[in-house]
Structures are given as C-alpha cells and as structure tokens.
Specification:
single chain, 310 residues, alpha/beta, Rossmann fold, 2 domains, six-stranded mixed β-sheet, four-stranded antiparallel β-sheet, 15% strand, globular, nucleotidyltransferase, ATP-binding
C-alpha cells in the first residue's frame, strides 16, 4: 500500500530544495564580487535574470548590488520586456548599461546578410565590444544547464580566452565548490549561478518569492500563425507569409528574446502556480518549443558560445 504524502509535507520538501538552490546562487554571486575587479550582471528583464537579481538582493541587500547590470539589446526586443528592465533597475537603484547591436551595425562591426536577418547571433560582437569598453573581467549570466545540450557542457565559472571564445575541452575542474578564477590580461569569465536550476525550479521560486515579471510570461490573446510546428507571433518584424492564416490564440512566452526568433506556446496559465503545473507536464524544453533560431546547425548554440555568445 502506498503511503500518502500530505500537501504541507510536499511544500516543505519543495522549499528545502529551493532554499538549497538559492543558497548556492547567493554563494556564487558573492564569490564573483570577491574574486573579480570589474564584474557585471547580464540582465535582460527575463525570468531567469529576474530570479538571479532577487538572489543578488538577498546576497548584498537592496540598492547595494556591487556590480552594474548589462543588457545587450538587438533593437528587436519586446517593448514590454525592455520597459520592465528599466523599471526594475531603477527600483533597485542599480546601474544599468545598455549596448545595442544597432550601434555595432553603425560602426560596421556587425553586417547583416540581408535586412531581415535575425540579429540574435550578432549579440556576440556587441557583447565583446562592451567587455573591451568597460574592461569587464567577469560576466554573470542566467543560463541553465537544462535549456539545451551546449549549455549543459558549461561550467559554473566558464573561462573565456583573450578573444572572448569558449573552449569546451579546456574547462577547469570545479570539485568541492572550489573555483579557479585566475585569468591572464584580456581574458574573462562567464559565471552562471543558476546552472543547477531547472525551468520548474525557476517558476516555483517565482511563485514562492512573488517575483514580478513582464506580462508576456502569462496567458494573453495574441495574433499568431502556425509555422513549422511553432506559433509565430504576428508583428511588424514577423509578418505572415503567403498562404498563412492569422488566428487569435491564448498564449504565453516560456522564454523571451529577440522578436524575430521567439515564439509563444498555447496556454491559459495566468499565474505562476498555474505555470508550475503546466511545466510539470511539458515534454519539450523551453528553447526547443519556442525558439526559431535554434533549429538550424548554422545557428547552433555551441558554435555561438565558442564565438563569444552568452
């Protein structure tokens, strides 16, 4: 006969799990502050970076985060997200640095093959230019290992050479939570404090901490077209193609990035608790279900990471 587990007991177990993840993240955020001279926290206004920001508040106190927030803007981001990014940074009293792919295009360091080419992959160039401009020696990112295979290969403290490149076969061991943070001039680290979190962990933490998010994460009606198994939002940047039928569906975004490559999923979940339930039943990763740019080998995440991407 199976033993029945009461809901309060399950809640307690869940909180212990989240407490352990939070404690690890806070420890890593403090390690970065102690080990590096010019770190920055990559902040997009998305759910993962907002979770990381909540942990930074707990690590240092509101208004006392010891490194600036850095955003690499493609110029094609959802306005709801960039507006929320600005609001949250101002609310925290944090320094926000924004650098744009469009500025790199104006300098000639980014050249699009055609005007409609997605800019997401070109963020690498703008990011490396920002690193050189501010001489950052560590960038804190919100990537998680469960997102896709290339991210699963990443260390928590991931070394980058003087060209900003990632060498997956030359990573440093991280035994017993000991991190080798030594770098030569021109090198830097990418640090991923929520590496061990999953999408489910993130949503459980959002629910527990009552973290405010951009409204696009929750169910809302939107004009979409079905294309190659994805629900493509109809916007000025992503208009319907010939023969496609525009319909209105209740959708939400599992991940938010460049408009030209980010798709919603059909959903009626209007709260974090409801999204937790949906996530438990999900059979496809959030990137696999929502990202157009991850479908082709030319735009593979591993290649991007080797070239300096997040």
């Amino acid at each position: 006969m199976n033993a029945r587990v009461d809901t309060p007991v399950l809640s307690q177990l869940s909180n212990r799990h989240l407490d352990a993840l939070e404690e690890e993240t806070i420890f890593i955020l403090r390690e970065v502050a102690a080990a590096f001279e010019r770190p920055a926290l990559l902040f997009s206004g998305g759910k993962d970076s907002l979770v990381m920001l909540r942990c930074a508040e707990k690590a240092f106190g509101a208004g006392r985060i010891p490194y600036p927030l850095l955003m690499i803007d493609t110029g094609h981001n959802f306005p709801e997200v960039t507006d929320f990014r600005d609001f949250r940074a101002q609310e925290l009293g944090a320094e926000l640095i924004v650098r744009s792919v469009e500025d790199s295009m104006a300098r000639g360091t980014v050249r699009l093959a055609h005007p409609e080419e997605p800019r997401n992959a070109h963020q690498s160039v703008t990011l490396l230019e920002a690193i050189e401009e501010f001489r950052f020696d560590a960038l804190i990112g919100g990537a998680r290992r469960d997102e896709e295979k290339a991210r699963a290969k990443e260390r928590i403290f991931s070394h980058r050479d003087s060209f900003g490149q990632w060498q997956p076969k030359a990573q440093r061991p991280e035994l017993w939570t000991l991190f080798n943070t030594r770098i030569a001039p021109g090198e830097h680290f990418r640090v991923f404090p929520i590496s061990n979190w999953t999408e489910l962990d993130v949503w459980q933490y959002i629910e527990r901490e009552q973290i405010a998010l951009p409204s696009l994460y929750y169910s809302h009606p939107r004009h979409i077209v079905e294309r190659k198994g994805l629900l493509v939002p109809v916007t000025e940047l992503t208009p319907p193609k010939d023969g496609e039928t525009v319909v209105v569906r209740d959708v939400r975004f599992r991940t938010l990035g460049d408009i030209t490559c980010t798709c919603p999923v059909e959903s009626t979940a209007a709260t974090a608790a409801e999204i937790v339930i949906e996530t438990l039943a999900a059979e496809v990763s959030e990137r696999g279900a929502t990202r157009m740019d991850d479908k082709t080998s030319e735009a593979s995440m591993e290649k991007r990471k080797k070239d300096g991407y997040f």
